[in-house]
Design a protein that fits this description.
The chain is α/β, with parallel strands linked by helices and 468 residues long. It contains 21 helices and 16 strands. The structure holds adenosine-5'-triphosphate (ATP) and magnesium ion.
Length: 468
C-alpha cells in the first residue's frame, strides 16, 4: 500500500524540519508549507491523507486554514498544534471539524498516535479526491492578485519576453534560483493569454513521489494497479485548453522524462493501465531552479527533452543582480503586510534600507518577503530598523539557521521539545521587547490570552513587571 502523505504547516522552518524528519521515520510521505496560503494551494495540487497545522502563524492562522481546507475537502483529517494554555481555541477547532489537537510542547508519541489514527480513518473511509478540486481556474485567487514588480533593466527584459510570448502556444522554460518569481511568471503568462479563463494546472514534479508522477500527469484507468478503484484523468487532460505548469522539472526521473518527451512531442499519451490514446491541446510551461544545462551535460536530463521544453527561455535573475528592485519590492511588501496584519509600519530607517540593499539575498524575493512580513508583525507601528532584521541579514551569512539543526545523537523527541520551547521563548521575548514589556499587548501580538502569556512567562522564567 502507498505510504500516506502528510501535509505539515508551520511558519517555523526548524519545526518543519524536525516534524518532517520524525514523520518520515514513521514511513510517511511529507509535504511542507510555511504558511496557510501555500498549504491550501498544495492541498489542491496533491493527494493529502492528513494535515498537521500550527495554530499560530502570521497571515492566515491555523483556524482559517482549517476552515478553508474543510470547505474544499470535508473528509480531510486536520490535526491542530496549539500553544499550551489555549485550550479554548483547541475546542473551537474541534467544533469546526478538526480531527484532533495536540498542545505544544507536544509529546512525540502522542502526535504519532493521533496521526496514525487520522490516516487509518481516511483509509477506511475510502475518500475520493474530487477532480474539480485540482483545477485552479482563472477565478482562483492565485491568478488574480498578481503584481509583478521590476523596473530594473534585467526585469524589463523579462517583461518584454513575457509580453511577446504570453498569448502564443509556445512552450516556455522558466529558469532561476529559488524565490526569484518563477511561479509568479508562469501564472502571469496564463493570465495574459487568451485561454486565461481555462484551467491553470500546476504540478510540482519534486513533491510527488516518482512512482506516482506518471498517474498524476496522465491519469489511470480502473484496475491499473491495486487501489485504482476508479478511473482518474491526469493533469494533462485537466489542463486541456489551458496551461499546464510543470514545476521543478529538473527533478524528474529518467523514466518519466521519456514519457514526458513523448507527450510533448506527439501531444498524445495513454493513461496508466489504459489502451486509449488521448490527444490534448495545452500550453506547457516548465520551471526549474537547478542548472538545467549542466544537468543535460551531466546526463541527468535528456537533451532531446530539454530542447523540446526550451523553445522560449525566461531566465529570472537573482535579486542581487537587480538591486534597484529592492526598494520598490520593500515598499510593495510593506504595504501588503501592513494591510494583511492590520499594522501601520511607516517604513525603514536609513541603516536598515542600506543593509537590505547590500545584502545578497540567497533566497531572493521570497526571503525578502518573509523578512518583511516578520518585521511588520513584530514592529509596533514605527520604522523598521536594524534590530528588526534577522541575524543572517545582519551578518551577511546564514550561519544562524544551520546551527539550529539538532545535533546527531540527540533524541528527536528531546530535540522537538527543546526546539519548541526555544521558538516559544524567542517569540515571547521578541513580542515583549516590541511592546516594551507590556504583557497584554504582547499577548495580543501572539494571539494568546494575557493569562496564558503569564503562565508561559513564568515557565520560561521571564519577569512580568507590567502593571496589573
Ligand atoms: N517581480 C515580483 N514582484 C513581486 N513579488 C514577487 C516578484 N517575484 C516574486 N515575487 C514573490 O516572491 C515569492 C517567491 O516567488 P515564486 O514562488 O514565484 O518563486 P519561485 O522562483 O517559483 O521559487 P521556487 O524555485 O522556490 O519555487 C512569491 O511570494 C512571489 O509572489
Ligand atoms: Mg516555484
Amino acid at each position: 500500500m502507498e505510504p500516506a502523505q502528510i501535509l505539515i504547516v508551520d511558519d517555523e522552518p526548524n519545526m518543519l524540519k524536525v516534524l518532517g524528519a520524525l514523520l518520515k521515520r514513521e514511513g510517511y510521505h511529507i509535504i511542507e508549507a510555511m504558511n496557510g496560503e501555500d498549504a491550501l494551494e498544495l492541498l489542491e495540487e496533491h493527494h493529502v491523507d492528513a494535515m498537521v497545522t500550527d495554530m499560530k502563524m502570521p497571515g492566515m492562522d491555523g483556524m482559517q486554514v482549517l476552515d478553508t481546507a474543510l470547505d474544499r475537502h470535508a473528509d480531510l483529517p486536520v490535526i491542530m498544534i496549539t500553544a499550551h494554555g489555549t485550550i479554548d481555541t483547541a475546542v473551537e477547532a474541534l467544533k469546526k471539524g478538526a480531527f484532533d489537537y495536540v498542545t505544544k510542547p507536544f509529546e512525540w508519541s502522542e502526535l504519532r498516535s493521533v496521526i496514525a489514527k487520522a490516516v487509518q480513518t481516511v483509509k477506511l473511509g475510502s475518500r475520493e479526491v474530487g477532480v474539480e478540486s485540482i483545477v485552479m481556474g482563472h477565478e482562483g485567487s492565485a491568478v488574480k492578485d498578481i503584481s509583478l514588480i521590476g523596473s530594473s533593466e534585467p526585469m524589463q527584459q523579462v517583461f518584454d519576453v513575457l509580453e511577446k510570448v504570453a498569448d502564443t502556444p509556445s512552450t516556455v522554460l522558466i529558469t532561476g534560483e529559488s524565490g526569484t518569481g518563477k511561479d509568479l511568471i508562469a501564472k502571469e503568462m496564463h493570465a495574459r493569454s487568451r485561454w486565461s479563463e481555462k484551467p491553470f494546472i500546476k504540478v510540482n514534479c519534486a513533491a510527488i513521489p516518482s512512482e506516482l508522477l506518471e498517474s498524476e500527469l496522465f491519469g489511470y484507468d480502473k484496475g491499473a494497479f491495486t487501489g485504482a478503484v476508479s478511473t482518474k484523468p491526469g493533469r494533462f487532460e485537466l489542463a486541456h485548453g489551458g496551461t499546464l505548469f510543470l514545476d521543478e522539472i529538473g527533478e524528474m526521473s529518467p523514466e518519466m522524462q521519456v514519457k514526458l518527451l513523448r507527450a510533448v512531442q506527439d501531444k498524445e499519451f495513454e493513461r496508466v493501465g489504459g489502451l486509449k490514446t488521448y490527444k490534448v491541446e495545452t500550453r506547457l510551461i516548465t520551471a526549474t531552479n537547478i542548472d538545467i544545462k549542466k544537468a543535460v551535460s551531466d546526463g541527468r536530463f535528456r537533451e532531446d527533452l530539454y530542447y523540446r521544453l526550451n523553445i522560449v527561455n525566461i531566465e529570472l535573475p537573482p535579486l542581487r543582480e537587480r538591486r534597484s528592485d529592492i526598494p520598490p519590492l520593500c515598499a510593495h511588501f510593506l504595504g501588503r503586510f501592513n494591510e494583511k496584519l492590520e499594522k501601520n509600519v511607516g517604513g525603514f530607517d536609513e541603516q536598515a534600507k542600506a543593509r537590505l540593499e547590500s545584502y545578497d539575498w540567497p533566497g531572493n524575493i521570497r526571503q525578502l518577503e518573509n523578512l518583511i512580513e516578520r518585521a511588520v508583525l513584530f514592529d509596533g507601528n514605527g520604522l523598521i530598523g536594524l534590530d528588526d532584521l534577522p541575524n543572517e541579514v545582519l551578518d551577511g551569512e546564514a550561519t544562524h539557521e544551520t546551527s539550529r539543526v539538532p545535533a546527531e545523537g540527540i533524541g528527536l523527541k528531546e530535540a522537538v521539545k527543546a526546539e519548541t520551547s526555544r521558538i516559544e521563548r524567542e517569540l515571547i521575548v521578541r513580542a515583549l521587547e516590541q511592546t516594551k514589556g507590556n504583557v497584554t499587548q504582547a499577548a495580543r501580538h501572539l494571539k494568546i490570552s494575557r493569562k496564558s502569556m503569564q503562565i508561559k512567562m513564568k515557565e520560561l522564567g521571564l519577569r512580568d513587571d507590567s502593571p496589573r
